[in-house]
What we know:
Elements: H1 2-5, H2 10-34, H3 37-65, H4 80-111, H5 116-147, H6 154-192
Amino acid sequence: MSELTGISSVAKLTAHLAAVAFMGSLQIMIVDWTHTRAHMAAAVCSRSALILAIQIALTWQFVAANHLGLTFTTDHADNVQVVAYLLTYLSFGAVAGLEIAILSAGMALGAWSRRRSIAIGLAATALGGAAVLAYTVSKGGYLIAYQVGFPWSLSVEKAISSPFAGLGTLLMVVGLCLPMAGHRATAESAAMS
């Protein structure tokens, strides 16, 4: 994509902006399920404003730090501008992952006795949020440790962080699909009887 736009690492920025939109959308959807109508507008507006602010901040930080050949990864933990960009991204991911994990776990516990497929899906979503939180703590911890002079091996950081990122996304997507699959199976069996 860099060849097409002439901007180095634009694919990384695009991926990070998409991840913020994905996680923020999940937060808004779960808030819709957990908040009363009286508090809904404020909860949705505050999260929407935060998503927009993070995306603007990431874009601004990216433009300010973008140098030819520079990647916005932990490979460049020695570049303070890249670290600031990544910590902005990871901070949002940590907050979103934590909120998704806590709210989904609470809803899973509440639904367990009545709707098992929904409870299992929400539990998977909660585990996905926890995996995203673990990803952000691992990657952010490495960046901070590098800045203060006590980093661990970059290969260890990548070996830990990458599986958490993939697992988090997979569990959240599958977790949100499971309730619908269970609902369809229940509806089809009711229609046949």
